[in-house]
Each structure stands twice: as structure tokens, then as C-alpha cells.
Design goal:
Length: 155
């Protein structure tokens, strides 16, 4: 189902989304989101902008910013990734995003190769070393192992 708002969202309880639900903030005056909320699709189509005033915002399919400024305002906005799928930041159109955005990437257990990348700022390979098994170079648990598990190239 679709919910179209030309106002504010105040979640003081529990909002349970269904797959396919779209909550769209429309209009021309700034809308605020108050309270932690799980969204399937969160659409900002408000030329006056959308501001998160409080609460963690978890998005399970897409954050779609058509127009206006979306401001996380020091709150946590997370694109969720799990066995069911990975949320995306859709094309931003004429809008903008400000604030921190956490992007998850689900990795299924087992053997295999996964393409992973570190954040653009504030992290290095050592941050990942404690989280996954790395081999074949100094600083890993198995530095003399003949197979290098990570390949990097300086730019």
C-alpha cells in the first residue's frame, strides 16, 4: 500500500511495513520524521525537504529522494542488507542527502568470493582483519600461507 503525507511522521509505537509499501513525503513545507521506524520504501518528494528529528531509520528496499533535501540530522539511517535482499539509495533526482548513511552488505556464510569495499573515509584494511579471515601477508593470522586472501592496489 502507499501512504502519501504532506506533513510529519510521529512514530511513538510500532509501524509494521509490508513488502511493497511506499511511504512518500510530498508537498512543499519541510516534513519531520520522529521515532525509530522500519521502512520498505521511504520516498522524499517534498521540495521543502524531509528532516529526521529522532530515531533510527531502517530501510529494507529503497530510499528514494526525488526532490528536496533529506537531512538525517545526526540520526542513524541504515540501508539494511539481509538474506532477503539489500536496500539501495535510488536515483536522487533534484534532491540531496546530508548526514551519515550506513550501508550494510549481507555476506552468506560459507566458502566463496565476495566483492567488498571499505568506507570511503575513516577505515583501512586492518579494520577488516579482525572481522574476517585474511591470509598470506604480514599482520594476518596466517602470514606465511601461500594464498593471499586480499589483493590491493595503491592509486
Amino acid at each position: 500500500s502507499n501512504i502519501n503525507l504532506e506533513g510529519n511522521w510521529n512514530n511513538s509505537g510500532t509501524y509494521t511495513y509490508n513488502a511493497g509499501d511506499i511511504v512518500s513525503f510530498d508537498g512543499s513545507s519541510n516534513s519531520t520524521i520522529t521515532g525509530a521506524t522500519d521502512w520498505y520504501v521511504l520516498n522524499a518528494n517534498n521540495s521543502g525537504g524531509v528532516t529526521v528529528s529522532s530515531g533510527n531509520q531502517n530501510i529494507y528496499f529503497a530510499l528514494d529522494i526525488d526532490q528536496g533535501a533529506f537531512d538525517a540530522n545526526s540520526n542513524t539511517v541504515t540501508l539494511i542488507s539481509d538474506a532477503s535482499g539489500t536496500a539501495v539509495l535510488s536515483d536522487i533526482g533534484t534532491g540531496s542527502y546530508s548526514g551519515n548513511l550506513t550501508v550494510q552488505r549481507f555476506v552468506n556464510e560459507g566458502n566463496g568470493w565476495y566483492l567488498l569495499a571499505s568506507p570511503l573515509t575513516g577505515a583501512d584494511l586492518e579494520d577488516w582483519n579482525g572481522e574476517s579471515d585474511m591470509t598470506g601477508f604480514t599482520g594476518t593470522e596466517l602470514p606465511s600461507y601461500s594464498f593471499k586472501s586480499v589483493q590491493s592496489k595503491g592509486l
